[in-house]
Design brief:
This protein is of the alpha/beta class and about 600 residues long. Helix content is about 65%, strand content about 10%. It folds into two domains: about 15-340, ABC transporter transmembrane region fold, CATH 1.20.1560.10; about 360-595, P-loop containing nucleotide triphosphate hydrolases (Rossmann fold, 3-Layer(aba) Sandwich). The chain has 21 helices and twelve strands. Helix 3 (about 65-110) runs antiparallel to helix 5 (about 125-165), helix 5 (about 125-165) packs antiparallel against helix 11 (about 300-320) and helix 5 packs across helix 12 (about 320-340).
Length: about 600
């Protein structure tokens, strides 16, 4: 299991490095400025060590040397600050550009992903992955990358200088340091799992809040506020428990490593003091058996203490960002799940120049769940220009049939032919351009009215947009808006569900596709307007193959063919008169709507 986790983390690291590759110049810049920063920071202790050694005793102070070293120390501080600023600029640019690319790829993957993925994942959780999780990755990288460059440079440089000054004390420091690393690694291994759970529960919490906001009226209507709050409290309590545990154990890292480093600092201080005393007593050269060491002064001790602290400091800083890094890895895995989601295949080489609208479905079988059959052996033959109505009880497969026609889902077996051509051989974007679709639920973006009507036909002129709006009987209410067709549909603009649906109908009328799909397209429109829209639809449907999903059977009496579905199969088909004459399922369904 530990091996799998290591492979998983290595895989995430490699994938993040792929995003780093285009911005190598920032990596090089960060590397160079980190060298300069660490160099100036480590030169400072050497200078004030010289200053200390220049103060030999009472009235024996070399003021010229002291002031010279103090001036050099001030310049070191100034240059170190400047180098740190440039290092920060490089790291910030690297991380934010990387995160921008990461969020772009996640969004592009989402827009091209299969409808099945959207249908089977909570929208709030998906939103959290693209917005919040990417930000967590950014925060973790900002902390981690900066500490990586400066920390590695500091460790290497201090090691070299300490071995030059006194290799015995340096060896002691190197031997004791792994204790700090062991403590940090021991705690880190036990926090990653908690952080992974934490981001998943955060996604569930966001999904629940989104559901509440979307169905707030329903929640209030059925007095389910308390139940919704209880559910929120359950998820929130779970998030608290997991988050508390993750933060608690990760918080142990810093004080634990600081304790170990304090022990190292104390050992260095004691050993250094002993060497100073022995060096003074021996007259400058310290002889330890076969080992001969050059003089060890108080100034050198101060330098060594400072370097020992600098050497252990990166381990403390790394432990400080362990929480962010663990959180970043957990969030990165969720983001890459979106990026890795299999998209729809746009492959296909068969082009149909003039679409007639002949639709034939042969031996089609489909189910959302392999264990639960839905559509089996479906066969439909639709002639070009026909008006096809699809009726049946709830759950019979009407919307599923529309999803298959639009290729939102692909058949498990069987074939859909358009003008005699296998639909799978037609490029998907070209195939969907053949259809215009009005759904029961209207989609309008936070753009102008004109933009929303022209959605899918960006080159439409204002005259064409207004003509489509008039045909959909929405021109009159558009002109009553504050800015007419240039009104932005934001939360401040109050338009009804019926008016929103009229705008969607105008959008389809503007697109003027060769085939139409109307899924309860007039469900939110009053009777008078519906009569006008039906008249407009009859006009636009002339010569076009049209599929109409209808619950109100009075709206499809003039259909050329009515498909009666039940339990995923077409059990009856024919005109209204033919089906009424059979006195079968449709006959009973029709009479149930008009029974007195």
């Amino acid at each position: 299991m530990n091996t799998d986790k290591k492979r998983f983390k290595r895989g995430l690291t490699r994938r993040l490095l792929v995003y780093v590759k285009p911005y190598k110049r920032y990596v090089v810049g960060a590397f160079l400025f980190s060298i300069l920063y660490v160099g100036f920071v480590l030169l400072g202790p050497v200078l004030y060590g010289w200053a200390i050694d220049a103060m030999i005793g009472f009235q024996r102070v070399d003021f010229e040397r002291v002031w010279l070293t103090v001036g050099g120390f001030a310049l070191c501080v100034l240059f170190a600050a400047f180098s740190q600023k440039l290092l920060g600029n490089c790291v910030n640019s690297l991380c934010y550009k990387l995160v921008k690319d990461l969020r772009r790829d996640a969004f592009e993957s989402l827009t091209s992903s299969k409808i099945r993925y959207i249908d089977t994942h909570a929208q709030g959780d998906i939103m959290t992955r693209i917005v919040t999780d990417v930000d967590i990755v950014s925060d973790g990288l900002l902390q981690g990358v900066a500490q990586l460059f400066t920390g590695v440079m500091t460790i290497l440089a201090t090691l070299v200088v300490m071995f030059v000054i006194n290799y015995i004390i340096a060896i002691v420091v190197v031997v004791l340091t792994p204790m700090s690393l062991f403590v940090a690694a021991f705690i880190t291994k036990r926090t990653f799992k908690s952080f992974s759970k934490q981001v998943r529960v955060q996604g569930s919490l966001a999904a629940h809040v989104k559901e509440l906001l979307g169905g707030q009226k329903t929640v209030i209507l059925f007095n389910e506020e308390n139940a919704s709050c209880e559910r929120f409290e359950q998820i929130n309590a779970q998030l608290y428990e997991i988050g508390w545990r993750a933060q608690y154990f990760s918080a142990l890292t810093n004080p634990s490593t600081r304790f170990v480093n304090a022990v190292i600092y104390a050992v260095v201080g004691v050993l250094g003091a002993i060497f100073c005393i022995l060096s003074a007593e021996s007259g400058g050269t310290l002889q330890l058996g076969a080992l001969a060491l050059s003089g060890f002064t108080v100034g050198m001790l101060s330098v060594f203490l400072s370097y020992a602290n600098q050497y252990t400091k990166p381990f403390n800083e790394v432990s400080n960002v362990v929480t962010q890094l663990q959180n970043a890895f957990a969030s990165a895995s969720r983001v890459f799940e979106v990026i890795d989601e299999e998209g729809e295949s746009l492959d296909g080489s068969h082009q149909i120049e003039d679409v007639r609208g002949d639709i034939r479905i042969v031996d089609a079988s489909f189910s959302y769940d392999p264990k639960q059959k839905l559509i089996e052996g479906l066969n439909i033959d639709v002639k070009a220009g026909s008006k096809i109505a699809i009726v049946g009880p709830t759950g019979c497969g009407k919307t599923t049939l529309i999803n298959l026609l639009m290729r939102f889902y692909d058949l498990n077996s069987g074939t859909i032919y358009v003008d005699g051509v296998d639909a799978k051989t037609i490029p998907l974007d070209r195939y969907r351009k053949m259809f215009g679709m009005v759904l029961q639920e209207s989609f309008l973006a936070g753009e102008t009215v004109a933009w929303n009507i022209a959605y899918g036909k960006e080159d439409a002129t204002r005259e064409e947009i207004e003509r489509a709006a008039k045909a959909a009987y929405c021109d009159f209410f558009i002109r009553n808006l504050e800015n007419g067709y240039d009104t932005v549909l934001s939360g401040n603009v109050n338009i009804s569900q019926g008016e929103r649906q009229l705008l969607c109908i105008a959008r389809v009328m503007l697109a003027d596709p060769p085939m139409l799909i109307l899924d309860e397209a007039t469900s939110n429109i009053d009777t008078m307007t519906e009569m006008r829209i039906q008249k407009a639809f009859r006009k636009i449907m002339q010569g076009r193959t049209s599929f109409i999903v209808a619950h109100r059977l009075s709206t499809i009496l003039d259909a050329d063919l009515i498909l009666v579905m039940n339990q995923g199969s077409v059990i009856e088909q024919g005109t209204h008169a033919q089906l009424m004459e059979k006195q079968g399922f449709y006959y009973n369904l029709y009479n149930s709507q008009f029974a007195k």
